[in-house]
Design goal:
heterodimer; A: 212 residues; mainly alpha; 8 helices; 2 strands; globular; B: 10 residues; little secondary structure; 0% strand; elongated; membrane (chain A); ER lumen protein-retaining receptor (chain A); receptor (chain A)
Chain lengths: 212, 10
């Protein structure tokens, strides 16, 4: 554990809390892509199957439970409790175009060919693109509420901080995982355009609005 | 490197 990994995990946790709090407080999931949330639940489910096979630390186990539980709670809020407020007309990204290539790539490029390892690899590939339905939704409506922008910023920062963590780990332990690194870089790059808008607009008190 | 290795990150 190092400071980059810890702040990365905290950014991830904060992102989830912002999202749940926003939906709960406003009693609405307007502007939130249910499809991205379904993909995240799939990511955590396939990655954390190792909860039963390998123990790392109480911290890891606790965080895995939190990520799993909150991802399903989010889906429940969007698709059941506040279903009426779900903006499905704008949430039209075809998630099979992300799931199937991620699965195919995981079958082809992995560290080891067994069930758990392929699913872990799939979760890494899928996570890198899971935000696309949400970004697509923002681009389709041309704007995002500030709170949704804060959520996206926290969620994007998490993998960016993990990249610093990987550099640090390589320098100090010689440890590296190419699959996680390449996917993590792709994931972070996808947020770059958003980061730019966030810093130049949202932080200056303006609404995140895309140029027409 | 030895595989399968345990994944120690989240």
């Amino acid at each position: 554990m190092n400071i980059f990994r810890l702040t990365g995990d905290l950014a991830h946790l904060i992102a989830i809390i912002i999202l749940l709090h926003k939906i709960w407080k406003s009693r609405s999931c307007a502007g939130i892509s249910g499809k991205s949330q379904v993909l995240f639940a799939l990511v955590y489910t396939t990655r954390y199957l190792d909860l039963v096979t390998s123990y790392v630390s109480i911290y890891n186990t606790f965080m895995k439970f939190v990520f799993l539980a909150t991802s399903y709670a989010t889906i429940y809020l969007i698709y059941v409790k506040f279903k009426a407020t779900y903006d499905h007309n704008h949430d039209t990204f075809r998630i099979e175009f992300l799931i199937l290539p991620s699965l195919a790539l995981a079958l082809l490029i992995n560290h080891y060919f067994n069930f758990l390892e392929v699913l872990w690899t799939f979760s890494i590939y899928l996570e890198s693109v899971a935000i696309l339905p949400q970004l697509f939704m923002v681009s389709k409506t041309g704007e995002a509420e500030s709170i949704t922008s804060h959520y996206l910023f926290a969620l994007g920062s998490y993998r960016a901080l993990y990249i610093l963590n990987w550099i640090y780990r390589y320098a100090t332990e010689g440890h590296y995982d190419l699959i996680a690194i390449v996917a993590g870089v792709v994931q972070t790059v996808l947020y770059c355009d958003f980061f730019y808008l966030y810093i130049t607009k949202v932080l200056k008190g303006k609404k995140l609005q895309l140029p027409a | 490197k030895r595989f399968p290795m345990p994944h120690d990150e989240l």
